[in-house]
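Please fill in the sequence for the structure shown.

STRUCTURE ENCODING:
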Protein backbone atom coordinates (compact mmCIF):
# COMPACT_ATOMS: atom_id res chain seq x y z
CA UNK A 1 0.00 0.00 0.00
CA UNK A 2 1.33 3.43 -0.95
CA UNK A 3 1.95 5.98 1.78
CA UNK A 4 1.96 9.76 2.12
CA UNK A 5 3.44 12.30 4.54
CA UNK A 6 1.76 15.03 6.52
CA UNK A 7 3.08 17.58 9.03
CA UNK A 8 1.69 17.72 12.57
CA UNK A 9 1.80 20.56 15.10
CA UNK A 10 4.01 19.21 17.89
CA UNK A 11 4.15 22.22 20.23
CA UNK A 12 2.88 25.78 20.45
CA UNK A 13 5.56 28.30 19.38
CA UNK A 14 6.88 30.28 22.32
CA UNK A 15 7.64 33.34 20.18
CA UNK A 16 8.94 32.76 16.67
CA UNK A 17 7.98 29.72 14.64
CA UNK A 18 10.62 26.97 14.57
CA UNK A 19 10.85 23.74 12.58
CA UNK A 20 10.91 21.89 15.92
CA UNK A 21 7.29 22.97 16.50
CA UNK A 22 6.29 20.39 13.88
CA UNK A 23 6.88 16.73 13.13
CA UNK A 24 6.19 14.59 10.04
CA UNK A 25 3.95 11.54 10.03
CA UNK A 26 3.63 8.83 7.37
CA UNK A 27 0.29 7.11 6.73
CA UNK A 28 -1.29 4.89 4.04
CA UNK A 29 -2.96 6.85 1.23
CA UNK A 30 -6.75 6.56 1.68
CA UNK A 31 -8.59 4.56 -0.97
CA UNK A 32 -12.04 5.29 -2.36
CA UNK A 33 -13.51 2.72 0.05
CA UNK A 34 -12.11 4.73 2.98
CA UNK A 35 -14.13 7.81 1.99
CA UNK A 36 -17.51 8.63 3.49
CA UNK A 37 -20.49 9.65 1.38
CA UNK A 38 -19.96 13.15 -0.01
CA UNK A 39 -16.20 13.04 0.55
CA UNK A 40 -13.36 13.15 -1.96
CA UNK A 41 -9.59 12.67 -1.81
CA UNK A 42 -7.45 15.64 -2.81
CA UNK A 43 -3.82 15.47 -3.90
CA UNK A 44 -2.44 18.76 -2.59
CA UNK A 45 -0.57 20.87 -5.14
CA UNK A 46 -0.24 24.35 -3.61
CA UNK A 47 -0.41 25.64 -0.02
CA UNK A 48 -1.05 29.28 0.88
CA UNK A 49 1.23 30.61 3.64
CA UNK A 50 -0.38 33.52 5.48
CA UNK A 51 0.21 35.46 8.73
CA UNK A 52 -3.10 34.18 10.13
CA UNK A 53 -1.59 30.70 10.50
CA UNK A 54 0.41 31.96 13.48
CA UNK A 55 -2.80 32.45 15.45
CA UNK A 56 -3.97 28.91 14.71
CA UNK A 57 -0.77 27.60 16.30
CA UNK A 58 -1.24 29.45 19.59
CA UNK A 59 -3.71 27.01 21.11
CA UNK A 60 -6.33 29.76 21.35
CA UNK A 61 -9.24 29.80 18.92
CA UNK A 62 -10.43 33.05 17.40
CA UNK A 63 -12.42 33.29 14.17
CA UNK A 64 -10.66 30.07 13.08
CA UNK A 65 -10.41 27.04 15.35
CA UNK A 66 -6.93 26.51 16.74
CA UNK A 67 -4.92 23.52 15.55
CA UNK A 68 -4.67 20.97 18.35
CA UNK A 69 -1.32 19.47 19.28
CA UNK A 70 -0.85 16.25 17.37
CA UNK A 71 -3.18 17.34 14.55
CA UNK A 72 -2.00 18.26 11.06
CA UNK A 73 -1.32 21.93 10.43
CA UNK A 74 -3.78 23.36 7.93
CA UNK A 75 -4.02 26.24 5.49
CA UNK A 76 -5.86 27.37 2.39
CA UNK A 77 -4.68 25.43 -0.65
CA UNK A 78 -5.31 23.96 -4.07
CA UNK A 79 -5.41 20.33 -5.06
CA UNK A 80 -6.65 17.80 -7.58
CA UNK A 81 -9.51 15.41 -6.86
CA UNK A 82 -8.09 11.87 -7.26
CA UNK A 83 -10.93 9.82 -5.69
CA UNK A 84 -14.52 10.86 -5.09
CA UNK A 85 -17.80 9.82 -3.51
CA UNK A 86 -19.33 13.21 -4.28
CA UNK A 87 -21.19 13.62 -7.57
CA UNK A 88 -20.45 17.36 -7.62
CA UNK A 89 -16.68 16.85 -7.52
CA UNK A 90 -15.22 14.49 -10.10
CA UNK A 91 -11.77 13.00 -10.48
CA UNK A 92 -9.38 15.37 -12.23
CA UNK A 93 -11.04 18.61 -11.11
CA UNK A 94 -9.02 21.29 -9.31
CA UNK A 95 -10.49 22.59 -6.05
CA UNK A 96 -9.56 25.17 -3.44
CA UNK A 97 -10.31 25.21 0.27
CA UNK A 98 -8.72 24.26 3.58
CA UNK A 99 -6.04 21.58 3.18
CA UNK A 100 -3.65 19.99 5.63
CA UNK A 101 0.11 20.40 5.49
CA UNK A 102 -0.02 17.10 3.71
CA UNK A 103 0.39 15.36 0.39
CA UNK A 104 -3.26 14.29 0.54
CA UNK A 105 -6.36 15.72 2.22
CA UNK A 106 -9.91 14.38 2.49
CA UNK A 107 -12.53 17.03 1.76
CA UNK A 108 -16.28 17.45 1.50
CA UNK A 109 -18.30 19.63 -0.86
CA UNK A 110 -19.40 22.30 1.60
CA UNK A 111 -15.81 23.34 2.35
CA UNK A 112 -14.46 23.58 -1.20
CA UNK A 113 -15.13 25.32 -4.48
CA UNK A 114 -13.97 24.47 -7.98
CA UNK A 115 -11.33 26.68 -9.53
CA UNK A 116 -12.65 28.53 -12.58
CA UNK A 117 -10.69 28.17 -15.80
CA UNK A 118 -9.41 31.67 -16.55
CA UNK A 119 -7.11 31.73 -19.60
CA UNK A 120 -3.67 33.15 -18.92
CA UNK A 121 -4.02 33.08 -15.13
CA UNK A 122 -1.39 30.94 -13.33
CA UNK A 123 -2.81 28.40 -10.90
CA UNK A 124 -1.06 30.05 -7.93
CA UNK A 125 -2.95 33.32 -8.57
CA UNK A 126 -6.03 31.52 -7.21
CA UNK A 127 -4.33 31.67 -3.80
CA UNK A 128 -3.12 35.25 -4.26
CA UNK A 129 -4.83 38.03 -6.15
CA UNK A 130 -7.86 35.77 -6.85
CA UNK A 131 -7.60 33.98 -3.49
CA UNK A 132 -8.31 34.95 0.11
CA UNK A 133 -5.66 37.66 0.20
CA UNK A 134 -6.98 39.37 -2.92
CA UNK A 135 -10.56 39.01 -1.71
CA UNK A 136 -9.53 40.48 1.64
CA UNK A 137 -8.00 43.48 -0.12
CA UNK A 138 -11.12 43.92 -2.26
CA UNK A 139 -13.50 43.77 0.71
CA UNK A 140 -11.39 46.09 2.81
CA UNK A 141 -11.16 48.76 0.12
CA UNK A 142 -14.67 48.52 -1.32
CA UNK A 143 -16.78 47.65 1.73
CA UNK A 144 -14.93 48.49 4.95
CA UNK A 145 -13.43 51.74 3.64
CA UNK A 146 -16.69 52.39 1.81
CA UNK A 147 -14.94 52.70 -1.52
CA UNK A 148 -12.20 55.15 -2.44
CA UNK A 149 -12.95 58.56 -3.89
CA UNK A 150 -10.70 60.03 -6.56
CA UNK A 151 -8.21 62.40 -4.97
CA UNK A 152 -8.20 60.73 -1.54
CA UNK A 153 -4.95 59.63 0.08
CA UNK A 154 -4.60 56.00 1.16
CA UNK A 155 -1.83 54.66 3.42
CA UNK A 156 -1.08 50.92 3.27
CA UNK A 157 1.22 49.01 5.64
CA UNK A 158 2.64 45.65 4.63
CA UNK A 159 2.39 47.15 1.15
CA UNK A 160 4.65 44.61 -0.57
CA UNK A 161 2.79 41.68 0.97
CA UNK A 162 -0.02 39.59 -0.46
CA UNK A 163 -2.95 41.70 0.75
CA UNK A 164 -1.33 45.12 0.96
CA UNK A 165 -0.02 44.99 -2.60
CA UNK A 166 -3.53 44.36 -3.95
CA UNK A 167 -5.21 46.86 -1.62
CA UNK A 168 -2.85 49.61 -2.74
CA UNK A 169 -3.42 48.84 -6.40
CA UNK A 170 -7.21 48.89 -5.96
CA UNK A 171 -6.96 52.27 -4.26
CA UNK A 172 -4.76 53.55 -7.09
CA UNK A 173 -7.22 52.27 -9.72
CA UNK A 174 -9.93 54.26 -7.91
CA UNK A 175 -7.90 57.45 -8.32
CA UNK A 176 -6.24 57.78 -4.91
CA UNK A 177 -2.76 58.90 -3.99
CA UNK A 178 -1.26 55.76 -2.42
CA UNK A 179 1.50 55.70 0.19
CA UNK A 180 2.97 52.28 0.95
CA UNK A 181 5.06 51.10 3.89
CA UNK A 182 7.43 48.22 3.10
CA UNK A 183 10.72 46.81 4.36
CA UNK A 184 13.87 47.38 2.34
CA UNK A 185 14.81 49.10 -0.91
CA UNK A 186 13.80 46.19 -3.15
CA UNK A 187 10.27 46.07 -1.76
CA UNK A 188 9.93 49.85 -1.87
CA UNK A 189 11.04 49.83 -5.52
CA UNK A 190 8.59 47.01 -6.23
CA UNK A 191 5.54 48.90 -4.97
CA UNK A 192 6.43 52.16 -6.72
CA UNK A 193 8.01 51.00 -9.98
CA UNK A 194 5.94 47.85 -10.62
CA UNK A 195 2.66 48.47 -8.81
CA UNK A 196 2.37 52.23 -9.25
CA UNK A 197 2.28 53.38 -5.62
CA UNK A 198 3.03 57.11 -5.40
CA UNK A 199 5.28 57.00 -2.33
CA UNK A 200 7.17 54.22 -0.53
CA UNK A 201 8.30 54.43 3.10
CA UNK A 202 11.02 52.00 4.19
CA UNK A 203 10.34 50.85 7.75
CA UNK A 204 13.78 49.21 7.90
CA UNK A 205 15.54 52.51 7.21
CA UNK A 206 17.21 54.36 10.13
CA UNK A 207 15.21 57.46 9.19
CA UNK A 208 11.87 55.65 8.90
CA UNK A 209 10.04 58.00 11.25
CA UNK A 210 11.30 61.01 9.32
CA UNK A 211 10.15 59.40 6.06
CA UNK A 212 6.76 58.65 7.61
CA UNK A 213 6.29 62.20 8.91
CA UNK A 214 7.19 63.70 5.53
CA UNK A 215 4.94 61.36 3.55
CA UNK A 216 1.93 61.86 5.86
CA UNK A 217 2.39 65.54 6.74
CA UNK A 218 -0.89 66.40 4.99
CA UNK A 219 -2.73 63.49 6.61
CA UNK A 220 -4.57 60.70 4.83
CA UNK A 221 -8.15 59.53 4.40
CA UNK A 222 -7.82 55.75 4.59
CA UNK A 223 -5.34 53.51 6.39
CA UNK A 224 -5.20 49.82 5.43
CA UNK A 225 -3.50 48.18 8.41
CA UNK A 226 -1.70 44.87 8.00
CA UNK A 227 0.92 45.22 10.75
CA UNK A 228 -0.49 46.77 13.95
CA UNK A 229 1.90 47.90 16.68
CA UNK A 230 3.95 51.08 16.49
CA UNK A 231 3.04 51.81 12.86
CA UNK A 232 -0.67 51.67 13.73
CA UNK A 233 -0.02 54.06 16.62
CA UNK A 234 1.89 56.45 14.35
CA UNK A 235 -0.91 56.26 11.80
CA UNK A 236 -3.56 57.25 14.35
CA UNK A 237 -1.46 60.29 15.17
CA UNK A 238 -0.99 61.28 11.51
CA UNK A 239 -4.50 60.56 10.19
CA UNK A 240 -6.85 63.24 8.93
CA UNK A 241 -10.09 63.87 10.83
CA UNK A 242 -12.79 61.33 9.92
CA UNK A 243 -10.21 58.91 8.47
CA UNK A 244 -11.31 55.31 7.86
CA UNK A 245 -9.05 52.60 9.26
CA UNK A 246 -9.35 49.17 7.64
CA UNK A 247 -8.18 46.77 10.37
CA UNK A 248 -6.95 43.74 8.45
CA UNK A 249 -3.99 42.26 10.34
CA UNK A 250 -1.14 42.76 12.78
CA UNK A 251 1.84 40.68 11.64
CA UNK A 252 4.29 42.75 13.73
CA UNK A 253 2.52 41.51 16.88
CA UNK A 254 1.92 37.83 16.20
CA UNK A 255 5.22 36.56 17.62
CA UNK A 256 5.22 38.80 20.72
CA UNK A 257 4.39 37.61 24.23
CA UNK A 258 2.83 41.00 24.95
CA UNK A 259 1.42 43.14 22.13
CA UNK A 260 2.70 46.70 21.93
CA UNK A 261 0.33 49.26 23.49
CA UNK A 262 -1.34 52.05 21.52
CA UNK A 263 -0.45 55.40 23.05
CA UNK A 264 -2.49 57.53 20.65
CA UNK A 265 -5.77 55.66 20.96
CA UNK A 266 -7.56 58.68 22.48
CA UNK A 267 -7.09 60.43 19.13
CA UNK A 268 -9.46 57.90 17.57
CA UNK A 269 -12.16 59.80 19.45
CA UNK A 270 -10.89 63.35 18.97
CA UNK A 271 -10.30 62.81 15.24
CA UNK A 272 -13.54 60.82 14.85
CA UNK A 273 -11.61 58.00 13.20
CA UNK A 274 -13.62 54.98 12.10
CA UNK A 275 -11.76 51.71 12.84
CA UNK A 276 -13.38 48.53 11.57
CA UNK A 277 -12.09 44.98 11.76
CA UNK A 278 -13.32 42.28 9.40
CA UNK A 279 -12.85 38.70 8.22
CA UNK A 280 -13.52 38.09 4.54
CA UNK A 281 -14.68 34.51 5.21
CA UNK A 282 -17.86 36.03 6.66
CA UNK A 283 -18.79 37.00 3.11
CA UNK A 284 -18.38 33.70 1.27
CA UNK A 285 -21.59 34.39 -0.68
CA UNK A 286 -19.92 37.42 -2.28
CA UNK A 287 -16.79 35.53 -3.41
CA UNK A 288 -17.96 34.99 -7.03
CA UNK A 289 -18.65 38.72 -7.43
CA UNK A 290 -15.27 39.68 -5.97
CA UNK A 291 -13.36 37.11 -8.01
CA UNK A 292 -15.07 38.27 -11.21
CA UNK A 293 -14.09 41.88 -10.55
CA UNK A 294 -10.49 41.02 -9.64
CA UNK A 295 -10.16 38.68 -12.64
CA UNK A 296 -11.37 41.45 -14.96
CA UNK A 297 -8.81 43.89 -13.55
CA UNK A 298 -6.11 41.22 -13.79
CA UNK A 299 -7.05 40.34 -17.37
CA UNK A 300 -6.96 43.96 -18.52
CA UNK A 301 -3.57 44.56 -16.91
CA UNK A 302 -4.86 47.15 -14.45
CA UNK A 303 -4.07 44.83 -11.54
CA UNK A 304 -0.85 42.87 -11.12
CA UNK A 305 -0.39 39.70 -9.10
CA UNK A 306 2.95 38.88 -7.50
CA UNK A 307 3.62 35.38 -6.20
CA UNK A 308 6.61 34.39 -4.07
CA UNK A 309 6.67 30.71 -5.05
CA UNK A 310 8.66 28.18 -3.03
CA UNK A 311 8.96 24.58 -4.19
CA UNK A 312 9.79 21.59 -2.05
CA UNK A 313 8.56 18.50 -0.22
CA UNK A 314 5.74 18.71 2.30
CA UNK A 315 8.31 18.52 5.11
CA UNK A 316 9.71 21.88 3.98
CA UNK A 317 6.50 23.74 4.83
CA UNK A 318 7.53 24.68 8.42
CA UNK A 319 10.72 26.43 7.27
CA UNK A 320 8.81 28.24 4.53
CA UNK A 321 6.20 29.42 7.04
CA UNK A 322 8.95 30.63 9.36
CA UNK A 323 10.48 32.66 6.52
CA UNK A 324 7.16 34.46 6.00
CA UNK A 325 7.51 36.05 9.44
CA UNK A 326 11.10 37.00 8.63
CA UNK A 327 9.89 39.11 5.71
CA UNK A 328 11.25 36.81 3.01
CA UNK A 329 8.35 37.33 0.63
CA UNK A 330 7.49 39.98 -1.91
CA UNK A 331 3.84 39.46 -2.78
CA UNK A 332 1.90 36.29 -1.98
CA UNK A 333 3.87 33.37 -0.53
CA UNK A 334 2.75 30.05 -1.99
CA UNK A 335 4.36 26.65 -1.43
CA UNK A 336 4.34 24.17 -4.31
CA UNK A 337 4.59 20.54 -3.26
CA UNK A 338 7.10 18.57 -5.32
CA UNK A 339 6.40 15.17 -3.75
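FILLED IN BY: designer on duty
SEQUENCE:
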Amino acid sequence: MSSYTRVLLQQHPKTTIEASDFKPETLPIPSKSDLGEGEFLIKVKLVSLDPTLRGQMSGRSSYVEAVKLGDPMRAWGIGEVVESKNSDFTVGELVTGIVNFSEYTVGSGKDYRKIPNIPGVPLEDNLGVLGLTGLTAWWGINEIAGGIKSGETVLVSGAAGATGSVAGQLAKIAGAKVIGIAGGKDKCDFITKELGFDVAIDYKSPDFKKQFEEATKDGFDVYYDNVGGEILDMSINAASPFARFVMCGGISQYNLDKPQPLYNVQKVTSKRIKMWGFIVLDHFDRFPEMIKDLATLLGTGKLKGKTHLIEGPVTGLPEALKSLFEGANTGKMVYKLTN
